[in-house]
Amino acid sequence: MPDMTKTEALSTEGALAPVDAIAPVTHEKPRSLWGDAWADLRRNPYFLVSSVLIFVLLLIAAFPGLFTSADPTKGDLVHHFLTKPELGSIGSPDWFGYDGQGRSVYARLIYGTRASIIVAVAVTLIVTIIGSITGMISGYFGGITDAIISRITDIFFGIPFLLGSMVVLQAFTKRTVWTVVFALAFLGWTQITRVMRGSVITVKQADYVHAAKALGAGTTRILFRHVLPNAMAPVIVVSTIALGGYVGAEATLSYLGLGLASPTISWGVDISAGAAQIRVAEHILLYPSLMLSVTVLAFIMLGEAVRNALDPKLR
Fold first, then answer.
1. How far is CA 43 from CA 40, 46, 286, in A?
2. How would residue 103 be classed by pLDDT, with cut points 50, 70 and 90?
3. For site-directed labelling of 126, which of 69, 161, 247, 267 has its Cα 20 to 30 A away?
C-alpha cells in the first residue's frame, strides 16, 4: 500500500478528522464577583435609567451655567412677582415661573442641585469610610474590641436620625453645607458599621484568609488585601441606597429651618418657601418637590440594581 501522509491517513472513511482541522481548546478566564456584577448591571434597565439621571444631576451640579443664564438670587418684584410658569419657554428663566421675591424658579432649581448632591455624596463617603473601618476592626478582632465598638454603635443607633441631626445643628450659629454634612455623618455611620461587621465575620472564616495567616502575612495586609475587598459588596449596596436618603434628609432639615438657609440655594429652602404660598402659587412648591423626588428615586433605583447584581441569590 502506498505511503499516506498523516493528514490523509486520518481523513480516510470512518477515521478521525484531520489533525490540522481539530480546533484548539480555549479556556475562558473565570469572571470575579465584580465582573459578573458589571455584566449584569449593563443589562439592567433600572441601572441604565438611574445612571443617566445621576449623570445629568452631577453635570447640573458641576456646571449650572450650562443650563441657565439667569441669576438665582436676583429678584424683580415689579415684573415677576409670583408669575405663573410659561411651559413653552423651555430653558428660559420664565419656564417654571417666579417665586414670591421675583426670582426664577427654574434657575433656583438648577443651582439648588449642587447643595443636595454635595451633601449626599460627602455624607456617604464619610459614613462609608468610618463605618467600614470600625466594622472591619470589630468583626475581625472580636472579643473586647467587638464588644466596645458594638456598644458604642448601639448607643448612636438608638438616637433617632433626624431628631439627633436637629440637635447637633442647634450647636451651630451659622449653618452651611458642611455643618449639615457633619450633622448627618455624626449619626449615619452606624448602619455601615453593622453591615461591615457581619460581612467581615463571614469573610474571615474563608480559606484564603487562613492561608494568608499560615504564610505569615501581617494583620494590616490581611485586613486591606484580603478581608476588605471581599467584604465591601454589601457595604456598597447600603451606601448607594443611602445616597437618596441623605438627599431627602438635607431637604427635610432645610424645610424645617434647621438645615441650610438663605442665601444658600437649596430645594428644601424653596419647598419651605413654596409651602407658605401654595394657595396662590403652587408652582413654587411643585417643581422643587418633583426634582427632589426624581433625585431620590434615581439613587434608590441605582442601589437596587447594584444589590441585585452583587447578591447571587437574586440573579
1. 5, 9, 34
2. very high
3. 267
